[in-house]
Amino acid sequence: MSIGRSAVAIATLTALAACSSGATTAPSGAAPARAEVFGAAGYRGIAPGMAKEAALATGKLATAPVSMLDGCTVLSWQGGPAPDQARLAAETEAQRKADDLNAKADAADQEAKQPAGKSAADSAKSAAKNAEAAQLAADSAMAIAELAGKREERDKAFAAAGGASFGKNGLHELGAPPEAKTAEGIGAGSSLADLHKAYDARGLKENAAGRFELPIAEKPGWHFEFTPTADGKVGGVAIAESAAKCR
């Protein structure tokens, strides 16, 4: 009796193990899950041209902007960088100052170009206007340079962490999170040699800002943008509308 019971117990345990193994093992012919590609169709349900409200409804983006420069509303991916209130305030002030001084410089320049009278008093008045216009132009140039610095800080942060930038016509730039890759396997950390190997034949070119652009054939008016690092790697990947501005 004891031998029979042992045999039954062993058979039962063997059957249970087989059932358990079968429940957790995928069929040998099943294909492994493929990682989502970052490309012309967008990423995580966020697509080119999508309205900000529709993009937020996906739940993939943070709701509070990390930058508002130039009228562009930049949102991080969920889990990405949180808004820096000091940086946002500095951006707002730099934008206000540049806009204000640029408008004053333009007005002063137009005033200085008005015909002057022939008297000594008229000449003195004209000289004063020219001096004022020159000073405002110099102040405006400094403010514009400061604003450009804020843009560079924003762009570096965007390249590193990715996110979505919205203008008056919806999404105009989408930055890949660090783990995302294009269909050709290019992402943050890829070598520039691999970048060129993948895209040179398709029209990859360096732009004036030192980034590499690649036209997106299936999305006219849009391009890939690859930000290089000093050590010869890709620091960030984005798709952007070529001509659109936020305001």
UniProtKB/TrEMBL annotation:
Highest taxon in the source lineage: Bacteria
Composition skew (Low complexity), residue ranges: 113-125
Annotated region described as Disordered, given as residue ranges: 82-125
PROSITE patterns: PROKAR_LIPOPROTEIN (PS51257)
Keywords: Signal
Signal peptide: 1-17
Residue ranges, compositional bias (Basic and acidic residues): 93-112
Protein name: Lipoprotein
UniProt source species: Amycolatopsis halotolerans
